[in-house]
Amino acid sequence: AQSVTQPDIHITVSEGASLELRCNYSYGATPYLFWYVQSPGQGLQLLLKYFSGDTLVQGIKGFEAEFKRSQSSFNLRKPSVHWSDAAEYFCAVGARNTGKLIFGQGTTLQVKP
Amino acid sequence: EAQVTQNPRYLITVTGKKLTVTCSQNMNHEYMSWYRQDPGLGLRQIYYSMNVEVTDKGDVPEGYKVSRKEKRNFPLILESPSPNQTSLYFCASSYWDRGKETQYFGPGTRLLVL
Q1: A99 and B CB contact within 8 Å
Q2: Contacting residues for B55 by C-beta, under 8 A, at least 6 apart
Q3: Mutation test of the interface with chain B: which of A98, A105, A108, choosing the one with the most B Cβ atoms within 10 A?
Q4: Whole-number pLDDT of residue B76
Q5: Contacts across the A-B interface (CB distance below 8 Å)
Q6: Cβ contacts of residue B1 below 8 Å, gap of 6+?
Q7: Between chains, do B101 and A94 touch, taking CB under 8 Å as contact?
Q8: Around Cβ A10, how many Cβ atoms within 10 Å?
Q9: What pLDDT score does B102 carry?
Q10: What 3-state class would DSSP assign to B70?
Q11: How many CB atoms lie within 10 A of CB B105?
Q12: With left for phi above 0 and alpha for psi between -120 and 50, is residue A53 left, alpha or beta?
């Protein structure tokens, strides 16, 4: 069955520190993978996506993610976190040509000054 | 401006009183979906539609209905709401072109069923 696991429910980092949010997926074929961010009281904003090709993808707001097929992972990274990055982050896998997304449980990021 | 709109944004109702949450997109997208978001569970897909008159169940369709009579609109209907449908609901639309997809989410509708 298709599934997405975000092992970390809550992460706290200091402003300026590096960040890595973990995402593992289970999918029968080559997946489409996404990271979304949800700020408090807001909708979801697409950070980046992977469909094929280069396994290191760049997104908005200085985020990047690396697709590792051997580890079934799609971890999100940022070299230096800003206080405004505090939000909830969702990893999702997409089924081709259906518009169907399966989301992970989300990781809440807290940024310490 | 390209957008997905939902109405209402906030709704308090009572058990058993039918309600409809509207969703509209102005991007001529073929695919539209409804999700619910609950703490610790992330977002779960309720229904999705690949085009006019084409809908299919997602992961948690029980207690919900949808229709897709026009490309731009995809209303979510709760015929007899129950307290376990208290949640935050998101509508999304997406466009696929040569294997590439862009998905847009609406602002969300927060529903409380008493």
Answers
A1: yes
A2: B47, B48, B49, B66, B67, B68
A3: A98
A4: 98
A5: 66
A6: none
A7: yes
A8: 10
A9: 73
A10: coil
A11: 22
A12: left
